[in-house]
């Protein structure tokens, strides 16, 4: 299937879902589609990595399958596992059930297998890959190279159509060279104020352009302060919602002082920002 | 196009970007699907296929601009008015516009060429920046003074001036490449990526950039050290997996499966050289220490010049780290005569803080092992390391300078594993290796 016809078409269609791209997002998403290569989106928290996968699915009408990674994630949770309870029950019920208990009926499909067997166009989101243990990368490499897996009791299963794969990472650890080589790489970072203003406007209907602009400028100023945790796009968007709910139309010092907690979560960051920006 | 592609990929490799054969082919493959006249798509296609670390992006862009220079659009606009007026106007707006770039190019054309030797002209950035001196425009661009609006305006102008400087530098390189060939400029134009820049030689601006690398590294270091603990540890019975396995043996649990033990956070003691010879390294390691506090159950930090003091208190959770460093430098008792004395420091440490080291501790010593020709007290260091679970020494000097002058590096290295740690890259490698 063709996912997107060109980078600019990708930009337009993502834009229609409310996701604002730029040259690097549009080009890498387009290429991931035509080259059928996984896209690794890496960057700080809250810059739209997860949202990107959702937007791709929405823009193309594909299903979204998500594998959330965490420490301790294993094959049984990522790929498939046998439903042992059901198997036990069956053995107790029928004495000669040994042959059938390793059949489709007892297979618990996990996200990776599900994506391989999907009949409809599918976006496979492997979220927060860096949180998984290194061994999981080996499994991913295997699956992502030929989209086929062998289940000893059932045989080899090959993807009829390759899913569009998006991996995300916060870079809490370096992913392996081998995995990176296999992927197209997209570094998502804090946007320019111009782009962030547009994102806020796309995500928060009804916000005035000047307020969106002030928010984006203030966020950029906060990010320059070397805080422990810089405000993310998600937090700027939250900030916009908050101001709208409070009925504020401009972001003056008073308002910033009152609502700083929405964007800065650490107390020391709030104090530092208040001091540097001369807030009372 | 093929030649250019090959030349470009070659230049990337020369500059230290690890581009594999397969990735080179991916890039070529990508080009087949693109309208090559859209330059930014071409740039991003190369970036997506070849640049897999953000630290490499800056150098990549410099090379891309040399191999695929922007064509100057349309007939040159006349900039007859006062160029400073025009610049002031542009600095108020969006720097990502064709006008902004065209103006930078016109200014290089007008001011950028100077005598570079007898009968030889060349292109430079500094005469352009001097002629326009954007810094002196800030005052009038600021408008409303005081408080938040001023901060925001300053931030914006500073970003735009930096963008202008970058456009000027790009155009200067383009012109030099045109006149003297790409290869020449390539070698001088690309700085090593930030993770390869020597701690001991970074500029102030680079230090700020380095600081951003600290938190991810601290997290990784913590993960590595706690993983080490976990290996081989066996924990409680995993009932589910045991039952599942028993299916193969007709319901008899022949093999038992144990749950991995919960990773327990290790304890860390950091001793860091805070003397001037390693000032930028010390800044970095102090930040690292601070970041590590969030990752470990117990961190104790010590700093020294010629005597050693505990600095854990300055880095209490929630403290502002830059403040903490300033306060620590002013208040902590780490200097008597101001010349680093490792032997003295080790003795003092053993006297006062030996109890900080236990069989659960990981000990990290950070310093250049330059001891002003004082006795090194290697025996003391040996005793200290023997009390700990792991001990490592990170030295910010290049290995070939160890043992020169007053360095006693290999003396210490005989009793504690010492790693060259000149840059973030080596620090990251160290972290990956200790697991
Ligand atoms: N380009 C964008 N266009 C529109 N909205 C965006 C964009 N980028 C980020 N956002 C907003 O930011 C929110 C957070 O993004 P998302 O959850 O995808 O972040 P993330 O990078 O996955 O963060 P984390 O690392 O914390 O998982 C989105 O829900 C959306 O509101
Ligand atoms: Mg996410």
Molecular structure report:
The complex is a heterodimer of chains A (280) and B (435). With 280 residues, chain A is α/β, with parallel strands linked by helices. In chain A, 49% of the residues lie in helices and 14% in strands. Chain A folds into two domains: 7-187, 3-Layer(aba) Sandwich (Rossmann fold), CATH 3.40.50.300; 193-276. Chain A has helices at residues 7-16, 23-35, 49-60, 75-78, 84-93, 111-117, 134-146, 177-182, 193-203, 209-223, 233-246, 253-263, 267-276, and strands spanning 39-42, 63-68, 80-82, 107-109, 122-127, 148-151, 155-158, 164-169, 184-187. In chain A, the strands form three sheets. Chain A has a five-stranded parallel beta sheet with strand order 2-5-8-1-9, with helices on both faces. Chain A has a two-stranded antiparallel sheet with strand order 3-4. In chain A, strands 6-7 form a two-stranded antiparallel sheet. Chain B is α/β, with parallel strands linked by helices and 435 residues long. Chain B has three domains: 2-67; 83-191, no CATH class; 200-235 and 263-433, Rossmann fold (3-Layer(aba) Sandwich). Helices cover 51% and strands 9% of the residues of chain B. Chain B has a six-stranded mixed beta sheet, sandwiched between helices. Chain B has a two-stranded antiparallel sheet with strand order 1-2. In chain B, helix 9 packs antiparallel against helix 10 (182-189), helix 11 (204-230) runs parallel beside helix 18 (424-433) and helix 15 runs parallel beside helix 16. The longest helix of chain B is centred in the middle third of the chain and has 34 residues, at 147-180. Chains A and B meet through helix 2, helix 5, helix 8, strand 9 and helix 10 of A and helix 2, helix 3, helix 9, helix 11 and helix 12 of B. Bound molecules: adenosine-5'-triphosphate and magnesium ion. Magnesium ion is lined by residues 49-50, 127, 168 of chain A.
């Amino acid at each position: 299937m063709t996912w997107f016809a060109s980078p600019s078409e990708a930009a337009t269609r993502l834009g229609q879902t409310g996701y604002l791209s730029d040259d690097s997002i549009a080009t890498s998403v387009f290429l991931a589609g035509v080259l059928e290569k996984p896209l690794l989106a890496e960057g700080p928290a809250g810059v739209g990595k997860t949202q990107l996968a959702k937007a791709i699915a929405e823009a193309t009408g594909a299903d979204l399958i998500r594998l959330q990674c965490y420490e301790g994630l294993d094959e049984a949770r990522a790929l498939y596992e046998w439903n042992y309870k059901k198997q036990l029950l069956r053995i107790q019920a029928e004495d000669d059930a040994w042959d059938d208990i390793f059949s489709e009926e007892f297979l618990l499909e996990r996200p990776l297998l599900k994506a391989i067997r999907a009949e409809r166009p599918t976006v496979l989101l492997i979220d927060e890959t860096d949180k998984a243990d290194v061994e999981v990368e080996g499994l991913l490499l295997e699956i992502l190279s030929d989209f086929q897996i062998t289940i000893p009791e059932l045989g080899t299963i090959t993807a009829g159509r390759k899913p569009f794969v998006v991996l995300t990472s916060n870079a809490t650890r370096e992913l392996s060279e081998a995995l990176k080589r296999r992927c197209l790489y997209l570094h998502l970072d804090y946007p320019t104020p111009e782009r962030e203003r547009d994102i806020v406007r796309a995500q928060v209907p009804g916000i005035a352009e000047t307020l969106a602009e002030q928010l984006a400028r203030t966020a950029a100023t906060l990010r320059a302060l070397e805080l422990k945790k810089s405000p993310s796009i998600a937090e700027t968007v939250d900030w916009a919602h908050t101001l709208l709910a409070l009925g504020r139309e401009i972001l003056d010092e008073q308002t910033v002082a009152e609502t700083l907690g929405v964007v800065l979560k650490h107390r020391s960051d709030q104090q530092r920002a208040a001091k540097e920006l001369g807030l009372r | 196009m093929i030649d250019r592609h090959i030349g470009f990929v070659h230049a990337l490799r020369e500059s230290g970007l690890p581009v594999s054969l397969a990735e080179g082919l991916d890039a070529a493959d990508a080009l087949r699907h693109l309208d090559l006249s859209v330059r930014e798509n071409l740039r991003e296609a190369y970036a997506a296929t070849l640049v897999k670390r953000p630290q490499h992006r800056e150098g990549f862009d410099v090379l891309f601009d040399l191999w695929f220079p922007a064509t100057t659009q349309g007939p040159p606009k006349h900039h007859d008015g006062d160029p400073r007026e025009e610049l002031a106007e542009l600095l108020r707006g969006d720097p990502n516009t064709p006008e902004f770039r065209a103006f930078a190019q016109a200014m290089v054309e007008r001011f950028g060429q100077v005598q570079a030797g007898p009968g030889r002209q060349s292109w430079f950035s500094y005469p352009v920046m001097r002629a326009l001196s954007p810094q002196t425009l800030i005052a009038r661009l600021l408008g409303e003074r005081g408080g938040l609006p001023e901060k925001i305006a300053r931030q914006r102008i500073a970003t735009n001036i930096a963008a202008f400087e970058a456009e000027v530098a790009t155009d200067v390189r383009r012109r030099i490449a045109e006149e003297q060939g790409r290869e020449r400029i390539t070698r001088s134009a690309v700085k090593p990526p930030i993770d390869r820049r020597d701690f001991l030689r970074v500029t102030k601006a680079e230090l700020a950039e380095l600081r951003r690398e600290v938190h991810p590294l601290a997290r990784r270091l913590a993960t590595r050290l706690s993983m080490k603990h976990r290996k081989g540890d066996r924990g409680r019975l995993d009932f589910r997996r045991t039952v599942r396995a028993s299916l193969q043996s007709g319901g008899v649990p022949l093999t038992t499966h144990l749950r991995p033990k919960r990773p327990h956070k290790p304890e860390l003691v950091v001793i860091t050289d805070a003397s001037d010879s390693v000032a930028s390294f010390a800044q970095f390691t102090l930040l690292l220490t601070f970041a590590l506090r969030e990752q470990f159950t117990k961190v104790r930090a010590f700093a020294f010049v010629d005597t050693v003091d505990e600095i854990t208190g300055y880095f209490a959770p929630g403290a502002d780290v830059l403040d903490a460093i300033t306060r620590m430098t002013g208040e902590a008792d780490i200097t008597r005569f101001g010349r680093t004395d490792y032997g003295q420091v080790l003795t003092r440490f053993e006297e006062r803080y030996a109890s900080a080291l236990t069989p659960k501790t990981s000990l990290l010593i950070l310093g250049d092992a330059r001891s002003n020709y004082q006795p090194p007290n290697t025996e003391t260091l040996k005793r200290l390391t023997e009390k700990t679970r792991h001990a490592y020494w990170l030295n910010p000097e290049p290995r070939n300078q160890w043992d020169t002058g007053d360095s006693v590096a290999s003396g210490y290295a005989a009793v504690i594993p010492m790693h060259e740690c000149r840059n973030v890259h080596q620090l990251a490698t160290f972290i990956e290796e200790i697991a």
